Amino acid sequence: MYLTREEERIYDGEYGWAKQVCMKIMVKLGELYDASRLIPVESAHVSGVSYKTLGDAPTDFLEALADAGEKVAVEATLNPQSLDPQYLAERLPESLVKTQLKLCEIFQKMGFKISYTCTPYYIKTPTRGAHLAWAESSAVVYANSVLGAWTNREGGPSALAAAIIGKTPDCGIHKAENRKPKIMIEVREPLEREVDYGALGIFLGKVLEDKIPLITGLRNPTPENLKQLGAALASAGMVNMFHCGGTSAKIEREHLEKITVEPKNIQETIEELTTTSTSKPDLVFVGCPHCSPSEIREIAEKMGDRKVREDVEFWVCTSRYVKEKTKSHVQKIEASGAKVITDTCAVVTWTDKLGIKTIMTNSAKTAHYAPTLNKAEVQLASLKECLKTALKQ
Amino acid sequence: MGAQIVLRGRGIVEGKCTAEALVSTKPISFLGDVDPSNGKIIEKHHDLYGVCVKDKVLCFPHGHGSTVGSYVLYSLAKNGLAPKAIINRWADPVIVVGAVIANIPMMDQVDISQLRTGDLVEVDAYKGVIKVLKSRKRGGLSKCI
């Protein structure tokens, strides 16, 4: 692997242990994947911020980096943590809250942006064609497939190293030849609801192996539909991007293997992800991945003047940034008794410690993870059905 | 006594050491499988269940599971419980990053079926060479004290 003179100096430890170890992470991973050099990244997005998913193991290393005075070299954002300071901190055990806050402080000390969101692209949209080092898998697929930026699916430590060095190994889908579709997916009937897009993602995640798909047959999907598709695709499989619609015009299709997706595949996937049929879930949760401004507006409009039922919690999860941007809609949603929760989501907080045993959601990604990560029963349903369940009629 | 066994592989994290081999046929997820406070394998279905990785040349096919596993290797090293070296058949990013940040010599592309728990081995991860200095025919697993 070729290193510039400056990179070599860092590698040899001339700028201290912390930079050296970050450079080594990058070089060793680069060698593993046959990268010939490092390339600068426009931004880094680090996962592994929630104490619930991290546990105690990373604290030692993160603290050592922060204590060495290391700062991020590029725009660097953080994935959700494990609590919302306004709504959840006081309902969770004090020791957990304290440890989470300590982790947050370590990241802040290193200069990370206090984003706590899985949708950093709503705060700042990456430049088309820019290279990134992002770790949150749903954001990786969205960046590659919808925004036209280029990023591998980084792990927590490698995204952290990239944030500090400002570079990433030039391998995987940073190379144009590795971004071509290898399989064609024909969706037989256009999908209507966001939950259908999520289900398509789970279905494809299981059959694609590592083949990037070219998806045809989608009729005018919204960016939010594609966000659901990508988030589910990444949680069920290894693929980090898809092609569809406009981006696929120039692609040669003749030689591609082809798979057809029938409406029954979508319906069956939704049924498989649904583990309970209760009409009274403990929690109705939308906002996985975190809501966009237009989703917040849509929810506010669809709710009308209805109030949340007393026996159900209704969470709408988004980033602090989007919540601030959509204040008037947020006020309307919260006036109903719903909580617009920031910094976290149902999957990465301790729903079990909040007494939540059943979750209804419009997110296929959440439905995929909640049985294991939340020890909860799940109902996967459209936003319309979620609102119907959460609100008094 | 037969000819000395010499195995070759690819050096990933540089370093040299001589220590007892601890050999597993199963992948290891450092997050979940290993307790960072005592260095023991705590996954009940693992063939090294209850065994301590401290100061061993830890040989296993490859890593798997969460990237948080890399940090577990760092914590083990900080607590003085890390293996002396890691030998894999196939390197995966979780173990590579863990070995880098914990500064544990590491090699891959090694035929670990030639190694047995209890063998005294010399690992040279600069050159990518492992020598079996003293072979142990049948060894019970040495437990942590």
Give an overview in words.
- The complex is a heterodimer of chains A (393) and B (145).
- With 393 residues, chain A is α/β, with parallel strands linked by helices.
- Helices cover 40% and strands 14% of the residues of chain A.
- Chain A has a five-stranded parallel beta sheet, with helices on both faces.
- The termini of chain A are far apart.
- Chain B has helices at residues 30-33, 69-78, 93-102, and strands at residues 6-8, 10-13, 16-23, 57-60, 85-88, 106-108, 120-124, 129-134.
- In chain B, α2 packs parallel to α3.
- The radius of gyration of chain B is 14 Å and the shape is globular.
- The interface between A and B is medium-sized, with 21 and 20 residues.
Write the layout of secondary structure elements.
The complex is a heterodimer of chains A (393) and B (145).
Chain A lengths: L4 H7 L5 H16 L5 E3 L2 E4 L4 H4 L2 H11 L7 E4 L15 H16 L23 E2 L2 H11 L8 H10 L1 E3 L13 E5 L6 H14 L5 E4 L6 H14 L6 E2 L12 E5 L1 H11 L9 E4 L6 H11 L9 E6 L1 H6 L1 H9 L3 E4 L15 E4 L2 H10 L3 E4 L2 H8 L3
Parallel strand pairs in A: 2-3, 2-4, 6-7, 6-9, 7-8, 10-11, 10-13, 11-12, 13-14
Antiparallel strand pairs in A: 1-5
Chain B lengths: L5 E3 L1 E4 L2 E8 L6 H4 L23 E4 L8 H10 L6 E4 L4 H10 L3 E3 L11 E5 L4 E6 L11
Helix pairs in contact in B: 2-3
